[in-house]
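WP5 quarterly update. Target: Arginine utilization regulatory protein RocR. Source organism: Sporomusa acidovorans. Length: 235 aa.
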Amino acid sequence: MLRKTYEDLENENRLLHSIIDVVSDGVYAVSVDGTILICNKAHKKMDGTTHNHVVGKKDVDVYYLELENFQRYAITKNPEPLLDQYMTYTTIAGKKVDIVYNSYPFFQNGNLSAVISIGRDKPSINELLTMVINSFNNKKSNRITNGTLYTLDDIIGNSVAIQKTLKQARKVAQNQSTVMLLGETGTGKELFAQGIHNASAYNSRPFIAVNCAAIPETLMESLMMGTVKAHFLEH
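Structure tokens (predicted):
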């Protein structure tokens, strides 16, 4: 019976290590004295190290940091989770790493025994954001085929100003009159322009964005207001 229990524990231990190794985030655990207990594949890839480089070693021998900058040091002083922390460090392999991580205290018999950290490096975060944005844009471009990416429903905001502007945008979209959007750079004028176009009766027609800064001053009036047939010949 004892042998079976031991085998069960061994199997469970191997299973847990396998689960930790397939996690895409870096998982790292260290005892309160600084001995590295666990370092999964994602963390080793992030650090540019191997199992033999880290597991069983002291963290101060693997990472070039002042003691007070280690997660375990902060949690030893105050055994509470550290969330959304940013840190830059250099590993024993000479690789500089920028990481965003969460750290958690681990207790045994009521005493702090270890610190578990889960993190992701900056390049991985950038890749994830790019993937999400590309996925979103691909879905939008597959759904809308008139040259736009956004509708008014994509503009999210709870402030009185944004809700009032959205209400006005939906109202003017029902009219055939020209709409002028005013605002500083980066305030989302083209988002609203696309949204108004898609909320209007012209949503099946192409949306054409024109870079006004590239239009010669002499042509601005005719391009914005229209021309009469043979107008240029008469002049």
